[in-house]
């Protein structure tokens, strides 16, 4: 229903059963490890509160987010289980994180000092960069971070609850960086134990590593994209019946029969070759639908694939329905689990020259999220 009681013009329907089942299947791959559901960035565009709740129902021991604010939003939404956050610029609300019993990550001595200064007794996980060259202490800074954390622990100022890192190339199982990062992580753990510190939860694996590299499962796996039913990389062969949880659909705002030779949308990048029926779909890049998919994307209509034609605009796009019967209000499915013949988010990613992560995470604008099972 829309805010005014009618059916939504455009909706992202999230099948929470699919999400829960995907997460269970992924957790089963690492039965000896704790399971973290990664729900940052509004659960990759799926809705963080609802997905967080579904994740707990499916057995997630942990929820993972990037920022303190996201962790606090989970608390506001009613979640009271273990939550870890891992990305903060100076001035982050560590005191609020401690008060909300949220675990924080320290990637540098400076950051650790800020966390300690927030007071209370923060539960801190230490992050080492093993080769991604992004967040995490660089190898040469790692011993200093570990020593500083040991001193803060000895002074009763923090609890050290985990040691972790993130992989750069897990979606390419043959990439040599995977083995090198595992080795670097083991060396980083040796530094921790040599400093008399219990590393706590040791973790390294994202979705791709959970699927393909059991040696990375360690004490906990951090599963994001695959639980939403989207492969980390379309080339990765996945032996699990994962189902896309999100379906993006909209109701036709207009239907028009046009003659051959009709130019469609800005720039007339598409001109009809024969008399045909055009359907106007009320979503565009204002909703996060990638304009770069112009000329390549498809949609599902009445169980069939139809081309998205002409330039994708801010508020709308056009589908060529050929001779299919169509009326205003009929539903067009842009992507989903394929049950209406529609493409997947991965297909849209290929059409737009991006990755499935970006296709779902970027959704917003006027789209209304709805939740339930399959529909
Ligand atoms: C630190 C960290 N761990 C785990 C994940 C989950 O990755 P994926 O969605 O590939 O499973 C992410 C997401 O990028 C992340 O930033």
UniProtKB/TrEMBL annotation:
It comes from the Bacteria. GO terms for biological process: D-alanine biosynthetic process; peptidoglycan biosynthetic process. Residues 245-372 form the Alanine racemase C-terminal domain. Pathway: Amino-acid biosynthesis; D-alanine biosynthesis; D-alanine from L-alanine: step 1/1. It catalyses: L-alanine = D-alanine. The modification N6-(pyridoxal phosphate)lysine is found at residue 40. The active site is at residues 40, 266. It is an enzyme of class 5 (isomerase). GO terms for cellular component: cytosol. Substrate binds at residues 134, 314. Its EC number is 5.1.1.1. Its cofactor is pyridoxal 5'-phosphate. One of its GO terms (molecular function) is alanine racemase activity. Keywords: Isomerase, Pyridoxal phosphate. Belongs to the alanine racemase family. Catalyzes the interconversion of L-alanine and D-alanine. May also act on other amino acids. This is Alanine racemase. It comes from Aeromicrobium marinum DSM 15272. The lineage of its organism: Bacteria, Bacillati, Actinomycetota, Actinomycetes, Propionibacteriales.
